Amino acid sequence: MRDRSVWILIALAGAAVCAHAQWLNRPTPGTPRTRDGKPNLSAPAPKASNGKPDLSGIWQAEGAPLDELVRYVPGGVNGLGEDDPSKYFFNILADFKPQEAPMRP
């Protein structure tokens, strides 16, 4: 019984350490903020040392609605728990009309 109690205490201590490491409320440094402290998503892009916009970082398009994805994948998308893919994954020119596409044969 004593050996089991020790393992339970070790598991609880490990869970407490891991839970603290999640950083749920850690603000990203350098993010422009409004007066109430929320990120200002309409702020201009930061400038690099050469004066051009600094677009470094991770960029990800939002997933498309399921009914829109069915146009690109007739059998449907997989249901393995991941996010739905973006429509740009299947067609990078998804927002263009066929006659207005900048890339043509």
Core attributes:
mainly alpha; flat; 0% strand; 105 residues; single chain
Structure description:
With 105 residues, this protein is mainly alpha-helical. It has 3 helices and no strands. It has helices at 2-20, 66-72, 87-90. The longest helix has 19 residues, at 2-20.
Sum this structure up briefly.
This protein has helices spanning 2-20, 66-72, 87-90.
Question: Which spans of ≥5 residues are poorly predicted at pLDDT below 50?
Answer: none
Largest sheet: none
Number of helices: 3
Strand content: under 5%
- By DSSP, the count of extended strands is 0
Mean pLDDT level: 79
What's the end-to-end separation, in Å?
75 Å
| Range of helix content | 25-40%
What structural category arises from helix and sheet content?
mainly alpha
Shape: flat
N-to-C series of helices and strands: HHH
Radius of gyration: 23 Å
Topology:
Blueprint: H1 2-20, H2 66-72, H3 87-90
